[in-house]
């Protein structure tokens, strides 16, 4: 047990990378899990620095939920744009990246219902998401992330995601 605590303590003290504001050419990949009103999700994403403090990217996710004895599943893809504002806040360590932004995309829902004249609870279509999150880097390349979001498709819901980040 002491070795595990020591290992995580070393990881936390190694977080002195000065890497957090996006710059042109920066690339990060993210992956993890999340939860929102329409169910539990697994996601993979990539972000690309296009200007100082500005990134664009994409996200692909899968999620599922059972509602009224009907199993719903969804695959979604989103294009996003984020502004990385952590450098504007005094006292934020250099290994913390804070951001906020907007995502647009498409959610494709399916279900296992056998009813013919039935309106599903979730419909496929255009999606809009507002997000705000942060990343904590243990070193120059590896970190963890967390994000709060509000989304709208055929429903409106809030959610939370956590995962890992690798920076190239």
| Biggest sheet record | 8 strands, antiparallel, barrel
Name the shape in a single word.
elongated
Q: What is the number of E strands?
A: 8
Runs in which pLDDT lies below 50 for 5 or more consecutive residues are: 3-19
User: What average pLDDT do the residues reach?
Assistant: 84
How would you write the strand order of the largest sheet? 1-2-3-4-5-6-7-8
* Spatial gap, N to C terminus: 33 Å
Global structural class: mainly beta
Q: From N to C, what is the helix and strand string?
A: HEEEEEEEE
Q: Please tally the helical runs, counting DSSP H or I stretches of 4 or more residues.
A: 1
The Rg value, from CA coordinates, equals 18 Å
**Helix content range of the residues, please?**
under 10%
Q: Tell me the fraction of residues in β-strands, as a range.
A: over 45%
Word description of this protein:
Helices cover 7% and strands 62% of the residues. By secondary structure, the chain is mainly beta. The protein has an eight-stranded antiparallel beta barrel. A hairpin with a 2-residue loop joins β1 (27-36) and β2. The protein is elongated, with a radius of gyration of 18 Å. The model is unreliable at 3-19 (pLDDT under 50).
Short description:
With 168 residues, the protein is mainly beta.
Question: Keywords, please?
Answer:
single chain, 168 residues, mainly beta, 8-stranded antiparallel β-barrel, 1 helix, 7% helix
